[in-house]
Amino acid sequence: SLLEQGNGQKGLPERSVKTLTWDITLQGSLMINGKV
Predict the structure, then answer these.
(1) First-last CA distance in the chain
(2) pLDDT of the residue at 6
(3) CA distance 3 to 33
(4) What are the CA-CA distances from residue 32 to residues 2, 3, 16, 21 (Å)?
(5) Is the pLDDT of residue 35 over 70?
(6) Sign of CA dihedral 23, 25, 27, 30
(7) Three-state secondary structure string covering 1-36
(8) CB-based burial of residue 9 (10 Å sphere; 0-12 exposed, 13-18 middle, 19+ buried)?
(9) Has residue 24 got a pLDDT over 60?
(10) How many CA atoms lie within 13 A of 15 on its CB side?
(11) Which residues have a Cβ under 8 Å from the Cβ of 31 and sit 6 or more positions away?
(12) CA 21, CA 7: separation in Å to the nearest integer?
């Protein structure tokens, strides 16, 4: 995702984990809302 790419450039694993969690949460919310 775009967020993963942005945080990946920083090279901070902790940020990557948080970003991945956010991506999953956002994707889940979009699917629930039927926007995907």
Answers:
(1) 14
(2) 54
(3) 21
(4) 21, 20, 24, 16
(5) no
(6) negative
(7) CHHHHHHHCCCCHHHHHHHHHHHHHHHHHHHHHCCC
(8) exposed
(9) yes
(10) 10
(11) none
(12) 13
If we measure between CA atoms, which residue out of 25, 15, 29 comes closest to residue 6?
15
Q: Which residue has the tokens 């450039």?
A: 9
* Contact between 23 and 1 (Cβ < 8 Å): yes
CB 8 within 8 A of CB 16: yes
Asked whether the predicted pLDDT for residue 15 surpasses 80, the reply is no
Separation between Cα atoms, residue 31 and residue 8, nearest integer Å = 25
- pLDDT at residue 7 is higher than 60: no
d(CA 34, CA 9): 31
